[in-house]
Write a structure and sequence with these properties.
Blueprint (H helix, E strand, L loop, with lengths): L2 H39 L4 H19 L1 H18 L2 H7 L4 H4 L1 H36 L9 E6 L4 E9 L4 E11 L2 E14 L4 E13 L2 E12 L6 H7 L8 H14 L4 H29 L6 H29 L4 H22 L3
Antiparallel strand pairs: 1-2, 2-3, 3-4, 4-5, 5-6
Helix pairs in contact: 1-2, 1-3, 1-6, 2-6, 3-6, 3-9, 3-10, 6-9, 8-9, 9-10, 9-11, 10-11
């Protein structure tokens, strides 16, 4: 590697980790100030806060935003080089603009490989520890992994939980419905239902029972009631033990296959999680090409102008990801295409800006 390549490579890596350190430090300080009372109230252990929570917090969010931080870092140090006329000196020495991109893409490859490894294997493990700590020390216990759970527990009987806590066997906003000839004849609603392992029954709290017979209805209310429901907490354990964010890719593949066989309506979300683990790190190459192309020219406004333009493009990129994800979940767009389409779109933009960049 030539001295120039090494010089750019070092500046790239240093700028990225410096930017990452500053952003994560600020994020951690704000997060700690928000959660400090919860840590104190629940006697969270000091080293648990540091290692179990904040180390994994930094790993998760740092990796999540790494492509955008790489993008901003490239714009930042390349703009500095342009302001000091280093880019002009490099091009004047006979090195082409394309050749100058080599150390940028070497550094991008290095960081993208790290991000891929983290996405597929390291982040899921970190998420398990972080989320468990969150639930123990500052999140409400019912803030669990699955929401809006519908189950048919009989030929004409249906149950619903808005949220379910597998550790305590409590379901919140519980509803039980009985239908006959496509007509609702009975409905039970309660604030929450808890499974009693001794009696093998569910205890519902703050309940309302509606008996419907044609045009007449009868309403009963109460504070507590035991009821026998053809539903056991074991049916929730497999689904709620881990979310897809807490599964490495091998575990996720197995889980997706089970969900596909069961006809789960959540399958598309799992597929998006799977494909985004690869597509997001590869966006690094696209964003780096855009970053170098727009910041290698010395302009009035200097670094500020370049950063403003870079942030605008970053916002567009995030918006494109959100739009394609919505189309995948609501309009039938392939999850694979939804994850990769923003990369393809911005690759076209990158090539256009690259062709317009000063050579």
């Amino acid at each position: 590697m030539k001295k120039l390549d090494l010089y750019i490579f070092k500046k790239f890596i240093f700028s990225f980790f410096f930017m990452m350190g500053i952003i994560m430090l600020i994020a951690s300080i704000f997060d700690f100030s928000e959660k400090m009372d919860d840590f104190l109230d629940r006697n969270a252990p000091f080293w648990g806060i540091i290692i179990d929570y904040y180390v994994n917090f930094i790993i998760f969010y740092g990796n999540l935003f790494s492509p955008l931080l790489i993008f901003i870092s490239v714009i930042f140090f390349t703009s500095q080089m342009a302001a000091r006329t280093e880019i002009v000196a490099i091009l004047s020495s006979g090195i082409s603009f394309k050749r100058m991109l080599l150390p940028y893409f070497l550094a991008s490859t290095f960081l993208a490989i790290i991000s891929l490894a983290f996405n597929h294997f390291v982040i899921p493990y970190a998420n398990k520890t972080r989320i468990k700590f969150e639930e123990n020390y500052f999140k409400l216990s019912f803030n669990n992994y699955d929401k809006n759970i519908h189950k048919q527990i009989g030929p004409t009987t249906f149950s619903y939980f808005e949220k379910y806590n597998a550790d305590a066997d409590i379901g919140y906003k519980f509803t039980l419905e009985e239908w006959e000839n496509d007509l609702l004849i009975f409905k039970l609603q309660s604030d929450y239902a808890q499974f009693d392992s001794l009696s093998q029954s569910w205890v519902v709290y703050n309940y309302k029972k509606r008996y419907i017979d044609g045009e007449t209805e009868r309403l009963e209310v109460g504070a507590k009631m035991d009821t026998i429901i053809n539903l056991h907490p074991s049916e929730f354990e497999e689904r709620l033990e881990y979310t897809t964010q807490m599964m490495n890719t091998i575990e996720l593949e197995d889980y997706i296959e089970k969900e596909r066989q069961s006809g789960s309506e959540n399958l598309i979300y799992h597929l998006i999680e799977k494909h985004s683990r690869t597509s997001i790190p590869f966006s690094t190459f696209v964003l780096v090409l855009i970053g170098v192309s727009i910041s290698s020219r010395k302009v009035r406004g200097g670094i500020g102008a370049h950063l403003a333009l870079g942030l605008f493009i970053a916002v567009l990129y995030i918006f494109a990801i959100k739009v394609t994800t919505v189309y995948a979940t609501n309009a039938g767009l392939s999850p694979l295409l939804a994850c990769w389409l923003p990369n393809f779109m911005f690759a076209g933009l990158a090539l256009y800006i690259f062709n317009k960049a000063p050579k």
